[in-house]
Amino acid sequence: MATILHKRWLPLIGPLLLLALWQLMISAQWVKAVLLPPPAETLAHMASVFANGAIFADLWATIFRTVCSFGIAVAIGVPLGVMLGSSEGAYRSVEFLIDFFRSTPSSALIPLFLLIFGITDINKIAIASFGAALIVLFNSAYGVMNAKKTRVMVAQIMGVSKWHVFKDVMLMESLAQTFVGLRSAVSMALVIVIVAEMFIGSETGLGHRIIDAQQVFNVKEMYTSILVTGALGYLLNLLFLLGEKKLIHWSGKA
Amino acid sequence: MSAALPAAVLPPLPTDTVISLPAAPQTHVTVRGLSKSFAGAPLYTNFNLDLPRGKIVSIFGPNGCGKSTLMNMIAGLVKPDAGEILFDGKTLRETQIGYVFQNYRDALFPWITAWDNIAYPLKRQGLKAAEVKARVDELVKLFEIRFDLKRYPYELSGGQMQTVCIMRSLATRPEVMFLDEPFSALDFEMTLFIRAKLQEAHLATGTTMVIVSHDLEDAVFLADRILLLTRRPTRIAELVSFDMPRPRLPEAVADPEFVRVKAHTLEVFRREMAA
Predict the structure, then answer these.
(1) For testing the chain B interface, which of A153, A157, A171, A244 should be mutated: the one with the most B CBs within 10 Å?
(2) Is B38 in a helix, a strand, or coil?
């Protein structure tokens, strides 16, 4: 009984240790209180911004931009990736471009996107979609390309039409890898949205909230917003992990 | 005299066709003038073969002689460089075949249940749900399946997965069924089970079967004919008949006739290895 209890609460040890270290840094006066507020005060402030609703506008703005970017990335990345993946020649001919832009930090492209879209919401969504779409595309293409040859042959021997070989076998085979791409893409979309909110003239969003608090030295507010942003990223990742387990039940087993 | 001539001056070797070399009576699959080389090294040159209807033929031979390549060319998975392959005078496209892979894990579709795997080729043939169910039920009865087919392939044991593969390939009532080392990834218990089930399926359907095996006992046990191949360039060393009545029980391996045929095939095999 005691061991079951232990196991269940094990994941809490890390966060509690962090909070303890945080408190220790302040109690031992390693860091000035003006740079790091006590954890209890920060958590109390977090509770209050949720209680009085002060954070909701920014939270929703960030979620909205991330979801939009992710949606666009999926709508472009999955069909294009599957198409490129099903013709290896096509993929090889654009492979360099995909790998190049995938390796380029999307934040480096912010000035370029500023030129094209100006200081708008569309800009933030456009650049986040761009970064996320490349990840989705790359993973979907590899999912199709790495479809087990045996399964494709199985369907061909049955005399199934080319379209059905594609739809019933290659597409299904690619789903596990596609989901890995979706999970990384949603994290990437959030990262870019936050950066864009910080540096592309913005009136809303968690990124804007973080940078605003920093400018006026409101550290409690800043840490609160950082923690909320982290929690949002964690929850999005968790959501996709759970979805993957449910939808792609064979992932890693076959 | 002619040995001194350069090769280019020699007339090309005549290649056999179904016209120049008609199939023997009771033939199901006719292979004529088959050629295949890999990286310039000929594996098969003008290879001819008649596979008898309704029989189980085992292909056996030294390593690298192209047992699987021969079967895969007949099944259309490997493209021959030249040659004709006819099923009752029809081409492969006009013929329903079945194929059981060595690697059952990679052959089943893990996203659908075992039952749906068996039903898949039937659904794609456009059969109605009731007809599909009737055919799958028939196979379940034939194979006396006691495990839950509503489970996913990765939840089954290796032997159960291979059983599902065999059921799926039989579902469409193929004329010819190909099995590529179907036992090599199975433990002995499952090998005995699948051997028995394959015999029952063969007795019930009369399907022509071709089995590639690297195990001499497996090759002889199920076969009506054992096709022994030479080293490459590959020719037929001998087509051995083994007419023991079916169903053959596991004890059949101790039968004098089995022992004699196995000893004979081993002798031919060793002679070809040494050649």
Answers:
(1) A157
(2) strand
| Angle in degrees, 0-180, between the axes of helices A171-199 and A110-117, rounded to the nearest 10 | 80
Note the ipTM here.
0.85
Residue A192 corresponds to which tokens in the numbers above?
A: 């870019």
DSSP-based three-state secondary structure for B57: strand
Residue B114: inside a domain: yes
| Chain segment B129-183, per-residue pLDDT in tens | 999 999 999 999 988 898 999 999 999 998 899 999 999 999 999 999 999 999 8
Query: Looking at CA atoms only, how far is residue A248 from chain B in angstroms?
Result: 8
Residues of B with CB under 8 A from a CB of A: 75-77, 96-99, 101, 103, 105-111, 120-121, 124, 152-154, 172
Which structural domain range is residue B167 located in?
Answer: 108-174
**Distance from the A113 Cα atom to the nearest Cα atom in chain B, whole angstroms:** 41
Q: What is the CATH number of domain A38-247?
A: 1.10.3720.10
Instruction: Reply yes or no on whether the pLDDT at A147 is more than 90.
Output: no
CA angle A48, A53, A59 (to 5 degrees): 105
